[in-house]
Design a protein that fits this description.
The chain is of the alpha/beta class and about 280 residues long. Helices cover about 30% and strands about 25% of the residues. The strands form 2 sheets. A 9-stranded mixed sheet has the order 1-2-3-5-4-6-7-10-11, with helices on both faces. Strands 8-9 form a two-stranded antiparallel ribbon.
């Protein structure tokens, strides 16, 4: 990602943050999600929902992973405020969760895939999914959450973790979305042992039956069209339930489609998918 711009925007947004910001039309609340593996700090999170009483379906948002490990500590859930707000506009309670080892979340970096020469993609995605599952298990007990409608939405490494989550889902998960999901991109158009990544998707497809939407742009330079197609084929051959969308080229690198700048494009794919699965919420605007 363009992490310099990412962190600059995040810093501006975080500067506006308090413990709870009840500004119309959306409530924004900083959270700590308890999770034993994350230690006393738990998982750092940001909730955004319509600012009126009620119970809202939950959209859990999962971030990507910078190529530079040194960048992990500077990450913040406020960087995904624009994406979370789009789900809140549609009547969802959107929660951005920082997984272990990112931002101010506790615990060690759990979803590392190890050395490029010998990557363990299954272990990485499974560890990320554990953080997402723990977050869902905590959030569904809030009085403002409708536990009957929970979706997970991830980008890049977060999309890969979301795929893994569907292979061992909590009972409340009804659908999931992955934007440019994958791991192992070390340079533009270069992935560590792409064949192992394909097999990881195949293994998750054998156990995943949750309806999924996958979106990859034609000019994604992390996981290009040929590899994305292999990931989809392997997942579907295993039995995974996936709707695959190839988005038109976006910017200089379509890997960043799920961003504030990409809102006019990716929201159309999301809205169509939600309608198809009776998850379109009649939100007051």
């Amino acid at each position: 990602m363009n992490w310099a711009r990412f962190f600059f925007a995040a810093a501006l947004l975080a500067g506006l943050a308090g413990q709870t910001v009840a500004a119309e039309p959306y409530l924004k609340e900083e959270l700590r999600i308890p999770f034993a593996l994350a230690g006393p700090r738990g998982l750092q999170a940001l909730l955004v929902r319509p600012n009126r009483p009620g119970r809202y379906p939950l959209a859990l948002l999962a971030h990507g992973s910078p190529r530079s490990v040194e960048a992990h500590a500077s990450m913040t859930p406020w960087a995904m405020l624009p994406q979370a707000t789009e789900f809140a506009r549609r009547g969802w309670a959107a929660v951005v969760v920082m997984r272990r080892g990112y931002g101010d979340s506790g615990g060690d970096w759990a979803d590392s895939y190890g050395p490029c020469a010998n990557p363990n993609f299954v272990a990485a995605a499974t560890a990320g999914a554990a953080d997402l599952k723990a977050s869902i298990n905590f959030l569904i007990n809030r009085p403002d959450i409708d536990r009957s409608r929970v979706i997970s939405v991830g980008v890049s490494a977060g999309g890969f973790a979301t795929v893994a989550l569907t292979a061992d889902p909590p009972p409340e998960l009804v659908a999931a979305i992955s934007f440019a999901g994958g791991r192992g991109s070390i340079h533009s158009d270069e992935v560590c042992h792409g064949e192992r990544l394909v097999e990881a998707f195949r293994s998750f497809g054998k156990r995943s039956r949750i309806p999924m939407l996958w979106v990859y742009a034609e000019n994604d330079h992390f996981f290009g069209p040929a590899l994305a197609q292999q990931l989809k084929d392997a997942f579907a051959e295993g039995g995974g339930n996936v709707e695959f969308v190839t988005a038109p080229p976006f910017g200089r690198d379509g890997h960043y489609l799920f961003s504030m700048e990409g809102i006019p494009v990716w929201t159309g794919f999301v809205d169509k998918f939600l309608r198809q699965h009776d998850l379109k919420i009649n939100a007051a605007r």
